[in-house]
Design goal:
The chain has about 260 residues and is an alpha/beta fold. The protein has one domain: Carbamate kinase. Helix content is about 40%, strand content about 20%. The chain has 10 helices and 12 strands. A hairpin with a 2-residue loop joins strand 4 and strand 5. Helix 2 runs parallel beside helix 10 and helix 7 packs parallel to helix 9. It is globular, with a radius of gyration of 17 Å. The two termini are about 25 Å apart. The relative contact order is 0.18.
């Protein structure tokens, strides 16, 4: 039987300062890479996805490339956003390799296309072959070509969600998606961690969710919870934890209880 797959989302605000363009939080990046190395020895296959953080969100906001081809500068914007997103990916790949993880980049721009902001085509063959080896695929929020409007942006949640569903449809065992951010899960209005969110209590907690700090064209915590809940309804539950805390990620991957918010159907 193939090993179960866990998808891990590293929040852009966790490893970059989203108020300062092209900034890296080195301590947080080092911690998360160490956790990934520890987790890679637990007998499960991992797919990592990271947000664009303070890298791609700034040019994406400038050129509005999440809205399609809207001006004479749109094609230039596509190239710049894709390049900057890739720059952050290379920094993370390098850190993982230096930590002892055989990480390789997998570009969403190269394996996905959209039609009016929704996935129209995905090719996972190379990623599946990567998973068969001692290699860790690392995807990221990226600029996507859109067959109808020219271009769009897929957040990391969308990229990982589409990947998870495609692999599940191919009979891979997708255990869950773990979101590593700056908080111990989703907070209620009093600042306490909400232990469990599902389709029955979501409306109760929705007003507690806020957008992300800094420049973000993909929606912040509200977007994260909605995307994760939509995926949970299709049989792939989620967990939101603090990615900076030593041990939290590797414990979560091992199946141990950690402080965070479980999202299920």
């Amino acid at each position: 039987m193939p090993k179960p797959i866990i998808l891990i989302k590293i929040g852009g605000s966790l490893i970059t300062d989203k108020t300062k363009q092209n900034s890296i939080k080195q301590k947080a990046l080092t911690t998360i890479c160490q956790e990934i190395k520890k987790a890679s020895k637990l007998g499960k296959k991992l797919i990592i996805g990271h947000g664009a953080g303070s890298f791609a969100h700034f040019p994406a906001q400038k050129y509005q490339t999440h809205k399609g081809i809207i001006s004479s500068q749109s094609e230039k914007g596509i190239a710049i956003v894709a390049d900057v997103a890739c720059q952050l990916n290379r920094i993370i790949i390098r850190q993982l390799i230096e930590t002892g993880v055989n990480a390789v980049s997998v570009s969403p721009l190269a394996m996905m296309t959209a039609n009016n902001h929704q996935l129209s085509n995905i090719c996972t063959h190379s990623l599946e072959e990567i998973l068969k080896l001692d290699l860790l695929p690392v995807v990221y929020g990226d600029q996507i070509i859109d067959e109808k409007i020219g271009c769009t942006i897929f957040s990391t949640e969308k990229v990982l969600g589409y990947l998870a569903l495609e692999l599940k449809n191919k009979d891979y065992q997708i255990e869950r998606i773990i979101h590593c951010g700056q908080t111990n899960g989703v907070y209620d209005e009093k600042g306490n961690t909400i232990p469990f969110i599902n389709s029955h209590n979501y409306q109760k907690y929705k007003k507690s969710l806020t957008g992300s700090n800094g420049v973000d064209v993909t929606g912040g915590m509200l977007h994260k919870v909605e995307e994760t809940l939509a995926l949970a309804k299709k049989g792939i539950p989620g967990l939101i934890i603090d990615g900076i805390e030593h041990g939290s990620l590797s414990k979560a991957i091992a199946g141990e209880k950690v402080l965070g918010t479980i999202i299920d159907k």
